[in-house]
Amino acid sequence: MRPLRYSINVSLDGCVDHMAGTPDEQSHNHAARTIACADAIILGRTTYELMEFWRTAEDLPPWMKPFQESINAVKKYLVSSTREPDGWNTESLTGDPVAAIRTLKERPGEGLYVGGVTLPLALADAGLIDEYEFVRYPTLVGHGPRLFDGLGGPLDLQLVGITEFASGVRAERYIPAGSS
Q1: 42 - beta bridge partners?
Q2: What is the pLDDT of residue 180?
Q3: In angstroms, rounded to a whole number, what is the distance separating the alpha carbons of residues 17 and 98?
Q4: What residues have CB less than 8 Å from 74, skipping those under 6 apart?
Q5: Quick count: other Cβ atoms within 10 Å of Cβ 119?
Q6: 106-120 pLDDT, tens digit each
Q7: Which of 59, 94, 101, 146 is the least buried, fewest Cβ under 10 Å from its Cβ?
Q8: Cβ–Cβ contacts within 10 Å for residue 145, how many?
Q9: Strand pairing of 131-137 and 4-11?
Q10: In the prediction, which pLDDT does 20 show?
Q11: What gap in Å lies between CA 166 and CA 8, rounded to an integer?
Q12: How far apart are CA 39 and CA 113, in angstroms?
């Protein structure tokens, strides 16, 4: 069974507004490497549409190009009842998203990644996420969606790695406690 990993940018106060953090070369390269290692990424409509910026972005600084190349190249699964894929190496996941992702996990491969807010909440409640990565920006936002707001119950995590960047951004990796 291939692992399902979750990665999200988050502020110190738990907000997940992707427009609030200040991007830097190291965190972008980290994200590019993360995506490049995935068999596929799974995105709900909101996150998919946010990431579509990279599909046609031009005049980017050279340090943003590896991320753009990774996100454009990776296989994508879209979970949405209101949006159909229109290319961009994307396939729809239909029916119950938890069941569909459970089936994807059963296929051979190196691993899947999921991003966003709503879809990962359902996957965490179903116990399908094998690794959590929180890319924590040293910023207080004070608004927007909060990380795992509405989780069905406590989820104890065990820290398994930290990557620190010169900007103060930290990528913290966790697994569900007791799963090591």
Answers
A1: 77, 114
A2: 61
A3: 24
A4: 35, 36, 38, 40, 41, 89
A5: 23
A6: 999 999 999 999 999
A7: 59
A8: 15
A9: parallel
A10: 72
A11: 19
A12: 8
The helix or strand, by DSSP H or E, that contains position 171, with its residue range, turns out to be strand 170-176
pLDDT less than 70: residues of the chain: 180
* Rounded distance between C-alpha atoms, residue 6 and residue 134, angstroms: 8
pLDDT for 12: 92
| DSSP codes, 54-117 | HHH--S--GGGHHHHHHHHHSEEEEE-SS----STTEEE--S-HHHHHHHHHHS-SS-EEE-SS
Q: What is the distance of C-alpha 40 from the center of its chain?
A: 11
Beta strands in 4-74 (DSSP E): 4-11, 40-44
Sheet-wide strand order for 112-114: 90-92, 75-79, 40-44, 112-114, 4-11, 131-137, 170-176, 157-164
User: What share of the chain in percent tops pLDDT 90?
Assistant: 84
Structure tokens given for 22: 């200040």
The two tokens of residue 84 are 């159909």
